[in-house]
Specification:
The protein is mainly alpha-helical and 74 residues long. The protein has a single domain, classed as 434 Repressor (Amino-terminal Domain) (Orthogonal Bundle). It has four helices and no strands. The chain is globular.
């Protein structure tokens, strides 16, 4: 059984959600309506999402039945 890591910040949460859904950065970006570079910068902690982008990410997670604060299944 794989151990589930608890994300400690937004970049870790984005990575955990992607890993959980087996999506590439490109695929997640397309699903959220943002660029690949945006997702890459979020994961590397170079930028933080706007309030609108964060809301889109949360809605995407809820639609996929994932807790947007942890990246784990609900």
């Amino acid at each position: 059984m794989a151990m589930i890591r608890r994300p400690v910040n937004f970049p870790e949460t984005v990575k955990e959600v992607r890993r959980h859904l087996a999506l590439s950065q490109e695929e997640l970006a397309h699903a959220l309506g943002v660029s690949f570079a945006t997702v890459n910068r979020w994961e590397n902690g170079k930028t933080t999402p706007s309030n609108l982008a964060k809301k889109q990410f949360e809605q995407f997670c809820k639609h996929k039945k994932i807790d947007p604060s942890s990246g784990e299944s609900c």
